[in-house]
Amino acid sequence: MHRPFEAAVSVCLYDSHSASILRLRKDANEQRLAAIMGYLIASVIPPSWCRGATVSFIPSTAEALKARGFDHARQLAAQTAHFLHLNTVDLFNRPEHTDQRRLTAEERQINLQQALSLKATKLPDKLILIDDVITTGATLTQAALVLRNAQVSEIYLASFARVY
Q1: How far apart are CA 39 and CA 17, in angstroms?
Q2: DSSP characters for 70-84?
């Protein structure tokens, strides 16, 4: 299968150091890290991706939003967009699937099937999807498939950390 996005970049590999940063950001409510992480993500995105692009994200689940009190994905995308001088758009309905951090790659794929849907009817032609960490790529790949099926012509992925 051909991947449904043009390219992906990450600031760093997922290791004990980046894991600590991500835990502080998401689970210890250290919201000030959003600006730093957004700046770092923006710094690895090629300028060619930005011409005519809009930034988006996969919203946190209702369960995560309730537990944290904030949508970490929305904040990270907004900060990244700020440093790129781009607009942010909220395209996806809030997923109802469970937290994927403890799921295997196969379980993530099953969990995401039909979990992502678009709430926006007017979509940008070129989009940069932001995530904090790409573990297996299942979430962003599924999001890119949904966007591609909705005729978004260029889709790029960017994250703070990646596992692979």
Answers
A1: 18
A2: S-HHHHHHHHHHHHH
